[in-house]
Amino acid sequence: MPSPAFLSTKEVRALLGPDPFFSQGQHEGDLAAPEVPLLEAARFRGPPIVFLGLQEAEGEDALPSSDFSAKTDPAAVAARIKGTPYFSLDVSELGQKDVDVALQSSVLARGAIIAEGRSMVDWNARNKFCPACGSPVYSLWAGWKLSCLTLLPWSDNTGRKPCPTATGLHNFAHPRTDAVIITVVTNAENDKILLGRNRKWPGKFYSALAGFIEPGETLEDAVKRELWEEAGVKVWGVRYHSTQPWPFPANLMVGFYAIADPSVPTRTDLDNELEDAQWFTREEIIAILTNPEGTNINARGPEKPFEKKVGSNATEQTSDEPPFRVPPVTAVAGLLISDWAYRKVYVGNSEQKKGNL
Known about the structure:
The protein has helices spanning about 10, 75-80, 95-105, 110-125, 220-230, 280-290, 330-340; strands spanning about 5, 50-55, 85-90, 105-110, 135-140, 145-150, 180-185, 190-200, 210, 235-245, 250-260, 275-280. It has about 350 residues and is of the alpha+beta class. Strands 7, 8, 9, 10, 11 and 12 form a six-stranded mixed β-sheet that branches. It has a two-stranded antiparallel ribbon with strand order 1-4. Helix 6 crosses helix 7. The longest helix has 16 residues, at about 110-125. The chain is elongated and about 75 Å long. The two termini are about 45 Å apart.
């Protein structure tokens, strides 16, 4: 599998299309008229490009927004900007031979920039039409905003009603991020956690329970709802841990801990998303985390859920193959599990009462 890579503007110049790259006018080669602010950083021709941001040099002071006003000479401002600008380039519609040539001198890329670029390329690729009137959209703000083509000064709108975005607050389309809650549930004594296995997951893979936020819902309410829907457990003591961007396509994983009563049987028949849900001891989880294959999520194994015999635990397995697997710490679910297992966080409280956060 190829690794993500960085290339310079010079190396991809043949893929970018004609100048100008941004602030394009009506015809090829035209620069947008400066008296039409709507066309600032607009792009109509060539493969989609998104400006991801400027990595400023260490110790450099950021320029105030007043320096970018209409009264300021753009060339003078550009000369004062210090740092490395990054862009994403969508080459999915370009010839493979041209792309291969550009990749010959690539440099290995860093994860955070790749994640941002991946999300922005996907967002621009999936949103092609105005949500108000259905007309095609075009890219502006260097890939961070989409606007209806009917709003362009040269558009012919004869015989059609004005797009609703033409008056009042323009209904521009902006990138979105969909929040997902990821929850590790413990008992009140803080010595067991509840993990589940999705029906679509390979092998004996178990993880924290998760689900999307619904409209009008708080993160805490989403935790309670998802845990009830997926495992039939009532939780309390919901506590935030951390977040992780997940650009597949544009999610934000929000990690939580919560408390439930392990004496109450779990249920996976409420929405049938999980194939299994089980409580595991700290000893069992540490045995998985210290197994070389314990967090190898790409490994294939038996498709049936892990079956724990009554009175036994996972550490009694004699094979080098782990009895089940969990996510690595590079995923927020794996970090939640690991932090709990190695007592980096404390979740349970035998004195907490149900219903209290």
